[in-house]
Design goal:
It is built from 33 helices and 2 strands. By secondary structure, the chain is mainly alpha-helical. Strands 1-2 form a two-stranded antiparallel sheet. α25 packs antiparallel against α26 and α28 runs parallel beside α30.
């Protein structure tokens, strides 16, 4: 039985109890109007019973736990707030945890294909952006039998003809089925495992439309399993939206309409931050008596961590009642959430619970811990974790090097960065190269960062856009606009795909140089010319600049574009928007109603900001005049 069941469990009954996540914690009286008559939210919320711990008790214990940390504090329920200006950029809009793939540690010792041969591996890195919203859980999803089987045992990577992949990549967007038909007519074979590997490559390139057409073609030629239907469902949700995906579920034969299908749909509801639909799907799974796994709970935890942290404690209680054991990812989410709220004592106790349950922290967990220690100015604790991560000899612990490079840079230890890079550089994999560029950038050693970039570019014929974007971010951090523009030109000339990461780096580059309008134009053109979704931070970076100027019109414009791009409302967006009204000395008519319509409940900071722009606020003078 897992730790949440024990009275001594820090997640529940000690001072670290996650009571700060529950409703009412740190809420001020003026926000109570948002909690009344919210029948829609209640109707679709997960079914939680036995709410046996009072809000006051949770609030009291959480406040006590904060006393041990002498610094600037915010409650965990303050979703979307940053506790200090020097906090690491944890939002894309989310924490690095949510975009880190656990498989990266497994692949850390591998290198991308260096030659342009006739075969392409499923694990190829070149020209592939692996970032995806909520991809911290992507390995658990296992959307095909082929992938699932491969995840259970180490096998020789299956390969497919690069000519077929090139034909699919070069074909007009709506003609993928014709390409596959012609391929077969020419006497070539396309078996189901080939389809799955091609699917994986197209997904990595975020070419979801092409992948969907290919799976539709496959469904006409091969019998589908539940995972095949789930993979297609996932692509429909990404390309055509949740509505079409939900309709597709009804077309799936009942025999294949199981847990994998519904958890896939749940993951897409979380990716689009549709909290109401996510709760509906979760409850549907329960009503159908489908197995409720840690994956489903982790998805909801991820969702609530982003937009409604007060519900996390209730979700943990329900997870305990369902006897669902937490995974490493569950603990990582909780550790990261505590770290973001600067509750270092709480973070430590969750780590101890993790160890008591026999789960040793992985490099990914220690990386999260060390970053939060650094952000909270606990340098000694951070150094201890880093040394623990490195072990006796970094040469024997190469999987840790990609993390060590950046962590030593954050600690300001240039000599240590140099030492770790010396170990890696002769046969560095792509992750270590990216980490080295980032590390040298953080240490303001631009020349060294550029040298790593050049070595990486010469080693791989077509380096990933991520390599360019990482150096672009270095230039942006140091306001090197001319160098950044030259790098983008070089990127385009090299035929490298320019996507969301590059747009984000370009936006930051121009914002840091004071060219906000230019950054706005770049992002707007990018979204018009492609169907790819810009990063959350790209919008926020521009919106913050308009907010500082008190430019309400343009701040509202960016707010609207974020919604059009598929980003659901979060407290962070409203904070920036309301700040624009404050700086512009403009009343914010209907702002409370807008927030309530989006199921956003203000934290203490936002309530104070709303009071400043309330057009109906009573003052001493207005009372006299009335």
């Amino acid at each position: 039985m897992w730790a949440l069941r024990r009275a001594s469990n820090p997640l529940r009954n000690q001072e670290i109890s996650l009571g700060s996540f529950r409703a009412g914690c740190a809420r001020v009286e003026s926000a109570s109007c948002y909690l009344k008559n919210d029948s829609q939210s209640a109707e679709h919320a997960p079914v939680f019973t036995d709410r046996f711990v009072s809000f006051k008790r949770y609030h009291h214990m959480q406040c006590e736990s904060f006393k041990s940390y002498n610094g600037r504090h915010h409650f965990s329920s303050h979703a979307g707030m940053k506790s200090s200006e020097d906090e690491d950029d944890l939002e894309d809009g989310f924490s690095e945890l949510e975009t880190a793939a656990s498989a990266s540690e497994i692949q850390a010792s591998k290198t991308p294909c260096e030659s342009d041969n006739d075969l392409i591996s499923e694990s190829e890195i070149s020209d592939v952006d692996s970032d995806d919203e909520a991809s911290g859980l992507k390995n658990e999803l296992e959307l095909s039998d082929t992938v699932a089987e491969g995840s259970k045992k180490i096998v020789e990577p299956k390969r497919v003809s690069v000519q077929l992949l090139k034909a699919i990549l070069n074909a007009p967007g709506l003609s993928i089925k014709s390409v596959l038909d012609k391929w077969v007519e020419d006497g070539n074979e396309v078996n189901k495992s080939d389809i799955m590997i091609l699917n994986s490559n197209l997904r990595k390139r975020k070419m979801y439309g092409r992948a969907l057409q290919m799976l539709e073609w496959s469904a006409d030629h091969y019998e589908c399993s539940e995972r095949d239907y789930a993979s297609r469902l996932d692509l429909i949700a990404k390309v055509q939206g949740l509505g079409k995906a939900e309709n597709f579920i009804e077309k799936i034969p009942k025999a294949y309409r199981g847990e994998v299908v519904y958890r896939t749909f749940l993951a897409n509801c979380v990716a689009t931050q549709n909290i109401r639909k996510a709760n509906e799907v979760f409850n549907k799974m329960k009503s159908l008596e489908l197995p409720i796994t840690a994956f489903a709970y982790n998805q909801l935890l991820l969702l609530y961590k982003r937009i409604d942290r007060k519900k996390i404690a209730d979700l943990l209680i329900q997870m305990e009642k369902d006897d669902v054991k937490p995974t490493v990812f569950t603990y990582n989410l909780l550790i990261d959430t505590k770290g973001q709220s600067k509750d270092i004592t709480g973070m430590n106790q969750i780590v101890e619970t993790m160890k008591e349950e026999g789960i040793e922290p992985l490099h990914e967990t220690r990386n999260i811990m060390a970053r939060h220690y650094i952000a909270a100015k606990f340098k000694d604790k951070a150094e201890a974790v880093v040394k623990e991560m490195e072990g006796g000899d970094a040469r024997e612990n190469r999987a840790a090097c990609r993390y060590l490079l950046v962590l030593y840079a954050l600690l300001g230890k240039a000599d240590e960065v140099s030492r770790i890079w010396e170990i890696c550089q002769s046969d560095a994999n792509i992750y270590e190269c990216l980490a080295a560029i980032e590390a040298w950038g953080k240490l303001k050693k631009i020349k060294e960062a550029e040298e790593v970039f050049e070595k990486t570019s010469s080693r791989w014929k077509r380096p990933s856009a991520k390599v360019y974007s990482t150096l672009l971010k270095v230039y942006a951090d140091h306001k090197m606009l001319a160098e950044g523009k030259d790098l983008v030109k070089r990127m385009a000339e090299g035929g490298c795909r320019i996507g969301p990461q590059t747009w984000d780096a370009l936006v930051r580059l121009h914002v840091e140089a004071g060219e906000v309008e230019k950054a706005d134009t770049i992002l707007h053109k990018a979204t018009q010319q492609t169907r790819m979704k810009p990063m959350f931070n790209s919008f926020i970076a521009i919106m913050e600049q308009y907010s500082k100027k008190g430019d309400v019109h343009n701040a509202e414009k960016i707010f609207y574009r974020m919604q059009q791009a598929g980003y659901g409302a979060r407290i962070r967006q409203f904070q920036v928007l309301v700040k624009a009204y404050i700086n512009g000395k403009s009343p914010a008519y209907g702002m409370n109603q807008r927030m309530k319509a989006d199921n956003i409940f203000p934290n203490h900071q936002l309530v104070e900001m709303l009071n400043q722009v309330d057009p109906f606020k009573k003052t001493a003078a207005s009372d006299i005049l009335d």
